[in-house]
């Protein structure tokens, strides 16, 4: 296979999915596995984008342009098709850290940056990776998706990093995904997300939906909560999550009484609180993000709603957010994650202690921070197993890698490049910490397309 | 008319110099990555050309250029997404988030490349024409106009985000593979995109220059300085302003359209209040009334943003704030006014001897 | 040169939030007249001009050369041949004298002409430059002109517009004696071919150049006639603080100085 | 029925918040014609003042009440400083003021981030403000949040105080004098500079008070000001420049409109519809709801 079709491969997977879901007969082909596992077979049947070049005479372009176009054409064995070059010449190896340090998302992403730095420092203190010290190259995504794409490209092309860690929002991940795929460089993404995605160059170390949302729903079901109200911010994760929740509810005899979205950053929730209250639901499933949570919970309490009468399960409120909303408004509400600061185990004690020592005693640790911390160690283990920084070899070595993470043992699923993770439901205490009230007992196999759930067959 | 000739000759030399820089020097000196960044900066410079016309010359503080940039960008990106998906297929994001099994009717024409290309410029212009004719006719101006255009930018961004199934929501349109059949990940084609952008920028500058130096350009300045007076001369200032507003919108639309292949993404993050103000700052720093100043200012500020945020992310915010304050409070003409100041000082030294005393009118009645 | 036209105002009334600034004014300005409007502050002089030029909404009737003006938009009234100046000279400071006049001359230009560069000086502009004595300064920015020159430029802009009626709001305020004299002579020449209405406080200036005078008081026309007739009107003397005409005039000129 | 009443009250309470954040602007923008985009950051300063005070004053209720005057002074001082440093150079260039103060607002946000950290901070509300009052009992009760009532009361008090100040005090007369005729005020011996600065102090101080109130209903973070500033400006624009009664009426009308639309559609759609309604309204009345018709528009 030449390099050309190599890069096109991943586009084609997308196209096949398209055909699958919109087949003229109206038949849905739920079997994602077929598409993925047999990509070699299907590949041949689909035409790839023609790698045509602009001709010298293209209209509206000056002679100078034409000249340089010819010049470029002669060395058309261009670099983009090669795997990203990695600078391993010295006694250091560079990795990229790509988080928003400014803008609206800085609130959350700075904490992820902190724990990435912690992991890198620890690794360097114990000898580095393959004998090389890890040198972090820091970039600011500035809460702006095109900037994320630009910075990703800079890290890969200019800095020749071995891997990049970061991104928080789905939008930023979607923006950088093609950059990593085209340059064949690795991204470790540490945040729970809406699933329905697998990229050969992204490792997802946060939860996918069957490790967070579905356990959350299972828990509500086990508590006898039948009528749900859905509240979310207006973006990809809540909308997709709510689609899945609706499908789950339908299959499990639950009813969805309402579904409301507020624009990201919205801080006026009195109407939504009124609607929730009037619905007399058993519980609320909350996928709000950031600032909106503060306003929502203040309004929720003002409306006289409590965790006792109508509990809220949140999937974006971790310890850091509890701190900024205030336990006054959150006491006894529920969260669904894979990690809490209070999670038991020696690995977590060490992590929490190290984090507080480095960043301050009042700083809490949270799920995305832990997933970020874990992702650096996982990369180290993969590199050491592969005995190379080459992304292709690292990928090949990834399957089955385990790590005794603060959240408990995690294992890399090589096929999906997600992790086996234990789901944990927590209750927010008046001290601002979250206590686990339920867990899944053992790590759940990642299933980003929910192929293992019959009710989810119409979703993707 | 020697003066005029001298000016044209200087302009021609300037254009040749700029073309040499953009088409020969930059591609030789810069890596593919940096050239790609330059392409992005040039897109903001295209918006700045329009802002120079509307704000610098016409006094219309267009704080909503993000809307037009977005219209152009989405028109282009949607065509490319549809083309990527292939005939009969839905773009990937619609399969993920949408419920429809076919393209909504209002996206369907964008499958046609010619329609999409025309729409990138004509759609923003049409929207600007409708908005502008309402706003200017009712003599909403100055601060009102600025606040209103901000509000519109906010509304448009919120609306786009809310329509996830058909516009990609917050994600916007990403992962664009091809550009009219050419694979975008090929550096050669990426370089061609850069050339197209550079050529388009030069074209827009030439167009704006013609407008600025035309009778219309003089009239536009007159409207900026005293709208009421122009009205008493028998012109309708609303129409004069409308032309500048619509042209600026078209330029922002084209910039948005070309931004898509250069960066590979268009999203509401490029549309709301903040990006709309950022479009203005470049022009303000360089010199709102000077085309060259506005363009260089836009490129300079965009470059500074990348450079500073690579080194000191937090410092960028302070620096940006300071730029606004210094450029507008203390140097309202922008950096270009410094050049003008020097030139005027030199000229005034030459003419100081000729005293300008009041002359009593003489001669025949008209 | 277009034919002369006069102004016929009937029962004109303008009010703001209950306050009536112009209260049923009847006024005839004959074609080719050089009419002065005088009256104390707040008499409604400027508001009257505002109403004629469409700046404020008014009731009644304003006929110009037989056409009704009320209800038309400002720029349409301007296009029908009425031009005005303001108390403070408003010229386009950033444009040159030539550009100012060129814009004034070009309201009827087509799209194509507008989008092209001005290559030559239009004949009417050149003639007007001579008339108002600004030929030497044609390429200077209007912002650098002396106060009197700005007023002449403004009048020049009305001339190139080829208006048939000039409404001038205190054109000689702040001018030196020589400049006033020159302006007055300019107005007399202009009024040979156009109708001119001047709002003025300067009684000396009025006496030297007015062909006819209307006195406004509290939104009404108090008196009308030649300079001598008006000055002899006891009502007018009463209005000017109950003094005699001579004293009143002195009073006003002192204020001006 | 309960729903309609509930939504109406919700609308009124949204309106009260809008009114409180727009009130300071009605002075600085409405009276003095200064577009101060950093007004939102003065609101933020008021909110952070509450946060800082709560660190030393433990009683949530007392600290909140203390925070009201302190925040007024803190934000007011910031405003006066801004006026002295920058705005007084820009009175003749309103559009430039807009962009300059936008720059100031960026810097203040980053400053807040550097001092208090990027994450939101929390304040405690006193217990008597977190509950609610039941207006109609029964199966479908109509309740009204105490915090909202408090904000409504605060807004009304602020409006009364401001209009009395403008109408009755010598300071108010001077402000109005300067607004109506700057030159005349100057020659009659009023120091316009001092009046400008005092008016700016008052307007910015009111932003600080609004900031204290916002801690009861929303997040306290570096970007809290930018989230509300455009809405506040729209209230003034629609209400009519320099018209306190216009500001009051429009704040409540927009609040009710927003809540009704939110209930019948979605929050996003409601926001877009409200903005469209505002644009349409300005087509009808470009000078806003209430205007002083002046003798000459030139």
UniProtKB/TrEMBL annotation, chain B:
TM region(s), chain numbering: 12-31, 37-56, 63-82, 114-136, 143-162, 192-212, 242-267, 279-304, 316-342
Any matching Pfam family: BPD_transp_2
Major location (coarse): membrane
Keywords: Cell membrane, Membrane, Transmembrane, Transmembrane helix
Cellular component aspect of the GO annotation: plasma membrane
Signal peptide: none
GO molecular function: branched-chain amino acid transmembrane transporter activity
Recorded superkingdom: Bacteria
Membrane topology designation: Multi-pass membrane protein
Compartments it resides in: Cell membrane
NCBIfam families tied to this protein: urea_trans_UrtC (TIGR03408)
Protein name, as recorded: Urea ABC transporter permease subunit UrtC
Source lineage: Bacteria, Bacillati, Actinomycetota, Actinomycetes, Kitasatosporales
TrEMBL record, chain C:
Keyword set includes Hydrolase: no
GO cellular component terms given for this protein: plasma membrane
Superkingdom of this protein's organism: Bacteria
MF GO annotations: ATP binding; ATP hydrolysis activity
Keyword Ligase: no
All residue ranges annotated as the ABC transporter domain in the record: 7-243
Pfam families: ABC_tran, BCA_ABC_TP_C
Keywords per UniProt: ATP-binding, Nucleotide-binding, Transport
Annotated coiled-coil segments of the chain: none
Protein known as: Urea ABC transporter ATP-binding protein UrtD
From TrEMBL, chain D:
Main localization of the protein described in the UniProt heading: membrane
Keyword Calcium applies: no
InterPro entries xrefs: ABC_transp_permease (IPR001851), ABC_UrtB_bac (IPR017779), BCAA_transport_permease (IPR052157)
Protein name listed in UniProt: Urea ABC transporter permease subunit UrtB
Topology relative to the membrane: Multi-pass membrane protein
TM spans (from-to): 6-27, 59-82, 149-166, 199-220, 232-257, 269-286
Protein origin, superkingdom: Bacteria
An annotated GO BP: amino acid transport
Pfam family, any one: BPD_transp_2
Keywords: Amino-acid transport, Cell membrane, Membrane, Transmembrane, Transmembrane helix, Transport
UniProt GO MF annotations: transmembrane transporter activity
Compartments (UniProt record): Cell membrane
Family: Belongs to the binding-protein-dependent transport system permease family. LivHM subfamily.
A GO cellular component annotation in the UniProt record: plasma membrane
